[in-house]
Automatic annotation (TrEMBL):
It comes from Gordonia alkanivorans NBRC 16433. It holds the Pfam family Esterase. Keywords: Transferase. This is Putative mycolyltransferase. GO terms for molecular function: acyltransferase activity, transferring groups other than amino-acyl groups.
Amino acid sequence: MMSVTSGNLHRRTVQAFIAFVVAVVSIGFSVTATADTGAKSKRADRLAEAMAEGRALDLTVHSTSMNRDVPIRILVAADRSVPRPTLYLLNGSGGGEGDAHWFAQTDIVEFAADKNVNIVVPMSGGYSYYTDWVKVDPVLGRNKWTTFLTQELPPVIDAKLNATGANAIAGISMAGTSVLALAEAAPELYRGVASYSGCAETTTRLGQLAVQAVVGGNGGDITNIWGPLDAPGWRAHDPVVNAHKLRGKAIYVSSGTGMPGRHDHLANEAIDGDVVEYARIVGVGGPLEAATYYCTQNLDKRLKQLRIPATIDYEPGTHSWPYWQDQLAKSWPMLERALTR
């Protein structure tokens, strides 16, 4: 009789899980629940009101490193009589270039109305992982997002908004990976970091498959990011490998388990009674979130090994916007404390 050790069983289970996730991400990593037309229209109206009242504004900031202009949307602090800190809030895989962004999919305009923090949202950067690519990609172009976000953009924001210079950064999905790497790359710039539903790995098989799904699935060549998959750049940008660089920061990391949660029901505005849409969200968004859950547990373990304090939040749920709206609200007290200490 063949015996199977617990270690071998665990490895086989993980391998089977990864194979399943690969099959799902091949369908499309960016498939997530988005708000219906009515909800998006109401949010557009609220944004327009905020623009008219001066509570929101759009900027175009030139990036010398990328030789292009980058659209930036800002929700300014409620009380601007004194300088205020800044939260840089990143969109997911599409970079905010379509409808899948914070302003169309969440109630962020209302949420920010009484907050004394400037919220700065780049509305570009799709499929870039918000990092500096080593090569210009034939499809996705020249990407130097680490340089832009950590060196070029902050001085412009500080001057435009008369900001304090205290910053934090948060992001979802693809950017959930990016914000951790950015906080590690520029430890002096950010006091806090919040990652929602990101896979915090770039050297593991699952982490690299996630990158391939996002970048390769949209025509890019992932070897143009940090070189071949075994090149040092992949390790240099792995948030788990470099977790020690997060010491001293306020850290919030969240992921759903992939099992249906409180927003995964037919009455959800993104589903609106559509059984097919419900099946898509649970059948695709569930496994995607299960993948980020696996990655997040690895980061959780590493931070505990390093004795670095962090808030890690797990709950049932899929890879979809209602959960990210919830997580921004849940992480806000921690981010606000870090920004105002």
